[in-house]
Structure formats: C-alpha cells, structure tokens
C-alpha cells in the first residue's frame, strides 16, 4: 500500500519545508493535515494542491512505484546556484590554464635535464677509466629525494674559503 504521508514527508525534507509551511500553501489547518495523515484520508483536491506546491506530479504521491523525489530550487536558490556554477567554471578555466603552464614548464625542465645529461656523458665519455667520474656526475644530477642527500653546488669554494681563513 502506498504511504502518501511518507512521500509527502520526504518531499518536504527535500525542499526544506515544514508541515506548517505546507499547510499554509495548501490552505489547510495543521489539525486538518494531521487528521488526513493519521486516518490516511486524502482528498483528491488536497493531494493535487500538495503535488503542485511541492513541484511534483500527483502520481509521485499515489503511484505504487517509489518515485525519485528531487528538490527543485526556488528562484532565489536557483540564482545562487547559477552564480556558484559560473564561479566554479571560471575557477576551473583558470586552474586549467595554470596546469597547462606548469606542464610546459616541466617539459622544458625535462629537456634541459636531458640536455645536461647528454653533455655530461660526452664530457666524461664511456671509457672504463672514467667510470668513477661518470658515476659521480650521474649521482649529481639525481634529485636529493632519490639519493637521500643534498649535493653541494660549489664544494670547491668552501674548501678554498677554509684555506684562506
């Protein structure tokens, strides 16, 4: 059996309405509404009014199938939602542009790193005598997160400053 009162209750919740507001909209006293709920004695014209003010078809209240009750925003909240959607779209476009810029920067840095690696490889060559220097140069190009240590950029300057002191 269809529980009309429960469907109305769900629709009221979806619209953030109270029973008092519904009663005012359909011009029925709260006592009269309570009587209809308790006795399950719904008049067609009352159900039609309820469906109309809740922006739902009458069949959603009385059909055997469970309806999907979706709240429709009022004019004020609809304007708010439209404004919010517009701001979200603007933010998305701005963030997408920033992401594209960062992607181009990463590509450029990767090309620079690849070029530096090729340069180091050509300077060191691949002879067995240069294996130790080759290993040191390659570890220098690894990020600190991979090696687990921070590589000093100018170690020779520190040793010279210690000698002069």
UniProtKB/TrEMBL annotation:
Keywords: Coiled coil. PROSITE patterns: HTH_CROC1. Residues 85-112 form a coiled coil. The keyword Glycoprotein does not apply. Gene3D superfamilies: lambda repressor-like DNA-binding domains. It comes from the Bacteria. InterPro entries: Cro/C1-type_HTH, Lambda_DNA-bd_dom_sf. Residues 8-61 form the HTH cro/C1-type domain. The keyword Hydrolase does not apply. GO terms for molecular function: DNA binding. This is HTH cro/C1-type domain-containing protein. It comes from Spirosoma oryzae.
